[in-house]
Specification:
The complex is a heterodimer of chains A (about 110) and B (about 110). With about 110 residues, chain A is mainly β. Chain A is about 0% helix and about 50% strand. The model of chain A has no long low-confidence stretch (mean pLDDT about 95). With about 110 residues, chain B is an all-beta fold. In chain B, a hairpin with a 2-residue loop joins strand 7 and strand 8. Chain B starts with a strand and ends with a strand. Classes of the chains: A mainly beta (about 110), B mainly beta (about 110).
Amino acid sequence: GDSVTQMEGPVTLSEEAFLTINCTYTATGYPSLFWYVQYPGEGLQLLLKATKADDKGSNKGFEATYRKETTSFHLEKGSVQVSDSAVYFCALSGDTGKLIFGQGTTLQVKP
Amino acid sequence: ETGVTQTPRHLVMGMTNKKSLKCEQHLGHNAMYWYKQSAKKPLELMFVYSLEERVENNSVPSRFSPECPNSSHLFLHLHTLQPEDSALYLCASSQDRSRVYEQYFGPGTRLTVT
């Protein structure tokens, strides 16, 4: 079945460092790919999405490119802030429309 | 109110109690979802409703009973829960169940079963 694998956390960075959170997927067909973020005590918020190969999703300085050849959707940001500390979830939606989530990666940014 | 709202935000209940969680979406969406988020586990999809009809039930125990009276409201009725049911319960909605539409999540209800 469809699945999503994220890098283990927590990821701890200093402010203004470069961020990469790896995400790979397994799916039949042509899924849509998403990154969601969860701040402490809150629900999940959509960060960005891509619906077809080579699409780049971007929002708030975060970017991810849909790479079908490597079945990946890695999240990147050039300069993280303390306010980016949160849990990040990679997810895919396939032919059934069901969202399949990775296990989440905790990001801690220190001043 | 905008987006997806959930009430209550926190709930403590005994194993013999009956309670209900409420979700309301103000987005005009046609699909609604219940998820369970436990520590150290991926999000678990519990139920899916499309146009007020239940289209998916992921082997959820019968002590959880969903209800969708209209396209804007979704309830999760709880009875005789177990301590392992303690978790964050998230509601979400989407335009429809097509893969291209993202889901919008509420803030969740933190449930503690004592």
